[in-house]
Design brief:
Length: 173
C-alpha cells in the first residue's frame, strides 16, 4: 500500500489503489484486471506503481511506473480519443490506445518496448528529447539513457514467443 513501509502478500481479488506498488519475487507473476477491463501482467522479479488512474464515461487515463522488470499491457478500445494508457520507466514513456505491448526496464536506464498488437508511441521521458518513435505490431524499440528511441526493428516470432512465455500466468488461486 502507498503509505506503508512493509510489503504484504497480494490476495486474490484484492483492490489496488493509486500510488500502490506491486512487486513480484522469484518464480511469481501477477495479473491485474483494471476497472476498464485492461489487463496488466507483471513478470517475476518486477516492480510497478500505479501512479494515475482515471475512469469516467468519456475517458480513461492509466499511468503505471515500471521500476524494474517486465510488464505486459493489454488495453481495451471502448473509450474515446481522450483515453490513454502510459507505462513510464526512468527514461521512457510508452503510450497506447487499444493495443497490447510489453515494456522491459533494466535499471538504471535501458527500456525496451515490444508491440504485440496495434501501434505504441515511445519517447524519452526528458522533454528536451522530443523525438517520438511509433512501434507497430511485431516491432520493438529501445531507449538507452538520455537518448531518443532507436528506430523500430522487427520482433521475430521466436523472440515474441519467449517474452510472452515469461509473462504467461496460470489461472491458479
Amino acid at each position: 500500500a502507498a503509505n506503508t513501509t512493509t510489503w504484504e502478500p497480494l490476495q486474490f481479488r484484492a483492490a489496488i489503489f493509486q500510488n500502490d506498488t506491486v512487486r513480484t519475487g522469484v518464480e511469481s507473476k501477477v495479473k491485474v484486471l483494471l476497472r476498464d477491463d485492461s489487463i496488466m501482467t507483471l513478470a517475476e522479479r518486477s516492480e510497478m506503481q500505479f501512479t494515475e488512474f482515471l475512469l469516467t464515461p468519456q475517458q480513461r487515463r492509466t499511468v503505471v511506473s515500471l521500476t524494474l522488470g517486465k510488464l505486459r499491457v493489454i488495453t481495451t478500445k471502448i473509450f474515446g480519443a481522450g483515453s490513454v494508457t502510459e507505462v513510464r520507466t526512468a527514461n521512457t514513456v510508452a503510450g497506447v490506445r487499444g493495443t497490447g505491448f510489453i515494456v522491459i526496464f533494466i535499471p538504471p536506464d535501458i527500456t525496451q518496448v515490444l508491440t504485440l498488437d496495434g501501434v505504441v508511441t515511445v519517447r524519452n521521458v526528458n522533454p528536451a528529447i522530443p523525438q517520438i518513435e511509433p512501434v507497430p505490431q511485431n516491432f520493438r524499440t529501445q531507449v538507452r539513457g538520455d537518448t531518443a528511441p532507436a528506430g523500430a526493428t522487427v520482433l521475430s516470432p521466436g523472440e515474441r514467443q519467449a517474452v510472452e512465455q515469461d509473462l504467461r500466468v496460470t489461472e491458479q488461486v
